[in-house]
Design brief:
The longest helix is centred in the middle third of the chain and has 17 residues, at about 65-80. By secondary structure, the protein is an alpha/beta fold. It has helices spanning about 5, 35-45, 65-80, 100-115, 135-145, 175-190; strands spanning about 20-25, 30-35, 50-55, 60-65, 90-95, 120-125, 150-160, 165-170. It folds into two domains: about 10-75, Translation initiation factor 3 (IF-3), N-terminal domain (Ubiquitin-like (UB roll)); about 85-175, Translation initiation factor 3 (IF-3), C-terminal domain (Translation Initiation Factor IF3), CATH 3.30.110. It is found in: Cytoplasm. It comes from Adlercreutzia rubneri. Monomer.
């Protein structure tokens, strides 16, 4: 028996207990019945007997249309996945000797990523003798964090890993909320 099958509740003839607490189709408690009698009641209604609380004493069984129940669960799960926020982590790479024009261009890209609601990993790459001056990379990260302080928050402080220095920034909750509201407005216009 697979792990997935083990999570499924027992149905009809799979229920092996002698008696069970029975709940009818509408959710009302009917009392404690012998399992074979509860199964007969479910069969008379052309529905399934489903064990919903096997660890209770006595186990709780419910009369329901199990196929319809599974279908409704699948629809709810699909809807929950659809409404999830997917946050991507974008990466922008800098060098310690970056020029002003390149810096502003990359800063605009980072801003665009943040406005889209994505987190941004800023990486400063060091080569050769640049490794002797990590403070240059740190100053670039601090300058970028200062420039973006009104739209982003630093999630992970700058940290050196090998030849690279990393910092993770995330959009402010207000910025992400504006993005979500504008998406909803676009959906209404169409």
């Amino acid at each position: 028996m697979s792990a997935i099958a083990a999570q499924e509740p027992r149905l009809n003839d799979e229920i092996t207990t002698r008696e069970c607490r029975l709940i009818d189709f509408d959710g009302n408690q009917m009392g404690v019945y012998p399992t074979h009698q509860a199964q007969q009641i479910a069969d008379d209604m052309n529905l399934d007997l489903v064990e919903i609380a096997p660890n209770a004493t006595p186990p709780v069984c419910r009369i329901m249309d199990y196929g319809k129940f599974k279908y409704d669960q699948a629809i709810k799960a699909k809807q929950a996945r659809k409404n999830q926020n997917k946050i991507e982590v974008k990466e922008m790479k800098f060098r310690p000797k970056i020029d002003v024009g390149d810096y502003t261009t990359k800063k605009k890209h980072v801003l665009r990523f943040l406005e889209a609601g994505n987190k941004v990993k800023i990486t400063i790459m060091f080569r050769g003798r640049e490794m002797a001056h990590p403070e240059q990379g740190l100053s670039i990260l601090e300058r970028l964090a200062d420039d973006l302080k009104d739209v982003a928050v630093i999630e992970n402080q700058p940290k050196m890993e090998g030849r690279n220095m990393h910092m993770l920034i995330a959009p402010l909750p207000a910025t992400a909320k504006k993005k979500k509201d504008s998406k909803n407005d676009e959906g209404k216009d169409n």
